[in-house]
Amino acid sequence: MFIGLLQIELFIPESDSLKAKRFVLSSIKDRIKNKFNVSIAEVENNDKWQRATLGVAMVANEKNFVDQALNKVLNFVDDYDQVEVVDHRIEIF
Q: The pTM is what?
């Protein structure tokens, strides 16, 4: 069994309030959950309007599968128009 963790730090340039930030994050989290079948949550920077840190977790029986899936999630977020990826980290246990 392999557990994969992806941490993505985001900048949300159009956000001018926490409500606007939550709207953008809710949209992107729902799309990721539905498309990739992973668990996702906002894990840091909860009170900042234009910053967010998302945590993504996945469990599978092949390390390569976990690595490829998390990289696809990262690419999906990177291509999302309303956010910019500032930093990311992938760990597989």
A: 0.91
